[in-house]
Amino acid sequence: MEQGKSRAVRPGPRSGGRIIADALVAQGVDHVFAVPGESYLDVLEGLYAVRDRLKLVTCRFEAGAVNMAEAYGKLNGRPAAAFVTRGPGACHGAIGVHVAFQDSTPMLLFVGQIPFEETDRDSFQEVDYRRMFAPLAKWVTQIDDAKRIPEIIAHAVDVAMSGRPGPVVIAISEEMQKHLVDVPDIGPADVSVPHPDPAALEKLRGLLAKAQKPLAIVGGSRWTEQGRAAIRDFMTAFNLPVTVGFRRQALYDQTLDTFAGDLGVGSDPALVAKVKEADLILAIGTRLGEPVSQGYTLFEAAGGVPIVHVYPDAAEIGRVYRPALGIVSDLNVFAHAAAKMAAPKKPVWSGWTKELRALRVAGQAVPNYEGTLNLAQCMHDLSRLLEDEAILTCDAGNFATWPPRFINFKDGQRFIGPTNGAMGYGVPAAIGAKIAHPDRQVVCFVGDGGFLMTGQELATAFHHGVAPIVLVFNNQMYGTIRMYQERTYPFHVSGTALTNPDFAKFIDAFGGHGEVVSETAEFAPAFQRAVASGRPAVIELRMNPDQITSRTTISAMRAASAAPAPKRKASRPAATRAPGKVKPKR
Hey, which CATH number is domain 14-181, 3.40.50.300, 3.10.580.10, 1.10.760.10, 3.40.50.970? Predict the structure, then answer.
């Protein structure tokens, strides 16, 4: 190129709406999930012009649209875009932003905005999105000048993917989209990712040399296939026991003898007890948040047990737990560097690894549950029937503890769910996953409560010709809340009982495949028929309502609460107690 000539191609005057569409294409964004609104009609016109390069997925509810975009980014490591209209549309979509923030998922949310000349008049559907989304997103901005569209969208993509990934929210004022301006598009930046310090790797080697009972916890986002393979090679070469963080079940091949289980909601109590015996924690990609740390009880904030914390964002290292060694690095780069480390010939912790693996195997044995439908056996059957490249999405609720306990996810499979416990995620995530990867089998796990929050998005699946399989765990209640209710206020059922439709007939109304399963032997054939149908499918699993989790029943909880309290030793009269020890009356 001759000196003095611009590298940027100037396509001539375009509307702001068209420039937004072109800017997304220039940044490599290839999917937009949207519920249309009059506040961004000009962007819809721009998307029409680039429809051969950018797929527009029309959804039925803003929460569904944003969760589809989040699932896309979680699976592919690059952001999809979601578009919602102003006011109510943005409020509905906010849940997906919170999911993306807590899950560290790159995502772009565009919100149509009022004309900027009407700002601060309490105009129709007016909201200050910088204030609304400030605690939920990595960055919130608004575009009022069409000339700045390429710059702001390019920066938004960089922010979404850098450091700890997350969502970016961009408000787009209505009249700005109509303005004609001449501005070049901006392509993606080639930015090198952080690499681990060689000296830090030597320190890691030294800490491992001193350890007797090390334990790895793998989590985080934006793992590549090569990075996952490298971290697997590192763990198997060192024979290190590996756990995965909450909702990160498929980051590690669970068929390997080094896999010890998951740390999160519903973890095996035996595993949790063993974690407390560990003398070295390798926290790779996980933030060591509340679910992983079991309510911040597993580790000491001051670092009593040495922690090696590997994370791409320095601000997250030591945020709660002071590490013995913090390594700022892209997770995939670290994995490749760790895989090159020389492994000990006979690790002293080999027996420890076998012990933890044995706990995992024992925990997967099928219990003799009461009732005609044994969900543990169903999960074992499903594990056998799943394709090697299957993608599994999960909603929030007590039912979500069955798959991680009884399925060993294979290396090529993926399991995604909301780490913030958002109900209504599973079905939209399954549709987003199937749109992003139409050739892969997609199965959704969802409770009866979560399904009726966003189950209508199955209309989106039919509209775009994709066929996920949805397993609805029906126990006629908000199960998680009922569990806590029975713990705190046993026998008092308040607000947690549900009345449900026939979920098989629900999908029949769309023209899909529906089945009801109430006995264990019915499940595998029903799933095979759903796969063979080639249509969106719903299999309703009619559970025993008493089986509130995979480990206990409501009856058992009530029996425990009714047990007489242990007798207390007689205390001295208050008058004889030492000064300052008198307890207040209750």
Answer: 3.40.50.970
